[in-house]
Amino acid sequence: MQYDLLIIGGGPAGSAAAITASRAGLKVALFEKGPYGRDKVCGDGLTPRAIAALNELRIDHSGAHRIDGLRMIAGKKERELAWPTTSRFPNHGAVWPRQKFDNHLLDVAVASGADVRFDSEALPEMEGERVIGVRVGADIYHAPFTILAAGAQGMAAKMLGAERDPNETFGLAIRAYAPTPRHAERHLEACLSLRDEHGTPVPGYGWMFPAGDGTVNIGVGALSTMKGFKKLNLNTLLDQYSSIVRESWSLGEYVEKPRAWRLPMSCVKRHGPGWVAVGDAAGFVNPMNGEGIDYGLESGILAAQKYIADPVTASAAYDREVGERFDAFLRTGRRFSFLIGHPWLLRPGLRIAVGTQSAADITLAVMGNLIDTNTPGAAGRVMKIADSALALADPVLRRTRAKA
Ligand SMILES: Cc1cc2nc3c(=O)[nH]c(=O)nc-3n(C[C@H](O)[C@H](O)[C@H](O)COP(=O)(O)OP(=O)(O)OC[C@H]3O[C@@H](n4cnc5c(N)ncnc54)[C@H](O)[C@@H]3O)c2cc1C
């Protein structure tokens, strides 16, 4: 079974690669270990950056619930913010429940000509260091290039050495769906001043993402830089958060049991002979807001484009270009996560971040990676200063956190 390109994983990253390569006429097979219609634990939030990536892929997103901005809450401060207006990204986002969203992308991949196989757990087939294809049960599929899009690092990643850096931050988050009369609202809501059951401030946030279908996606996420992270009980944290928002959202009972999953934010190796990693498999989750869908779409498109342009140089060219696009920002994000892992820095930081409307606007643009490099403005200047300051403070922040 010979193909031009093999893809392991049918999330947004894998689908984006499959759509791009199939439309260019390549013979593509994508393997998804789940059944058709599998769900993915997620907040379902798409930022304008993700909408731009969907536009690049020519995906019809009119079925998604449109979102015009973010309500940022920290303590008693509440700010309603519009997405930034830039020439690079549209000024709207969306909430698109993953079961429907991922299915839609896979349907487009099939319509573009990709051979999509469900219930197919695929593992890389190696010849020395080189990936020469994938194995699904007893079947072997061959191709000169394989894209690892298998999400948070598992067995396939382990075989390739594409694992999380143990010294780096990662996230854990939990979500549920619940009915609410406010399901059609056009703002995401994020509460940045969460505390755990012992009163320790949580570097992370609680969210209410209205899905427009009678429900809201409610969840909480935390970064591993938090003091006592290993003992953090996400179910308890979610229950605490839902008790805070229950009244204002007239929240009903959870539609199903809350589910949690990992948010990988680093990867020690994302390419090698005959393969590259994209999306979560490459650790591409923004530590400042937990967003990974956009980075999955962008890296999936890029990996396919590099292979289409030149199969021989694709692996190294992808690594270089994806690095130019994301590495500096994600590194700053990881440093930021060590900063807010200190409770005594998190609290005053939050006061500044939401202190005024314009400060909150800048916070939204910086944390969402929504700065237009052509017209960076105040958010661009803040990002530059944050870059340099965090680079200097990073070693101290990491050392002192370990002692906390
Ligand atoms: C609770 C929570 C909330 C989140 N909220 C948001 C949000 O609101 N917005 C946002 O942008 N991001 C959010 N994220 C992050 C986002 O879900 C991920 O970054 C995104 O799904 C990454 O896409 P992906 O395609 O790389 O991986 P995935 O979506 O995880 O897809 C990987 C696929 O590969 C399949 N697979 C795995 N191993 C194999 C194998 N060996 N063979 C075949 N198939 C395999 C899996 O079944 C899966 O379908 C959230 C994450 C969590 C945990």
Characterise the protein shown here.
Strands 6-5-14-15-16-13-17 form a 7-stranded mixed beta sheet, with helices on both faces. Strands 8-2-1-12-19-18 form a 6-stranded mixed beta sheet. The chain is 37% helix and 23% strand. The longest helix has 27 residues, at 314-340. It contains 10 helices and 19 strands. The protein is globular, with a radius of gyration of 21 Å. The chain folds into 3 domains: 5-67 and 93-165 and 264-328, 3-Layer(bba) Sandwich (FAD/NAD(P)-binding domain); 171-263, Alpha-Beta Plaits (2-Layer Sandwich); 331-403, no CATH class. It starts with a strand and ends with a helix. It has helices spanning 12-23, 48-56, 98-111, 155-160, 234-249, 293-309, 314-340, 343-354, 357-367, 377-403; strands spanning 5-8, 28-31, 45-46, 65-67, 69-74, 77-82, 93-95, 115-117, 123-127, 130-136, 139-142, 145-148, 171-179, 187-191, 204-210, 215-223, 259-263, 271-272, 275-277. Flavin-adenine dinucleotide binds next to helix 1, strand 13, strand 17 and helix 6.
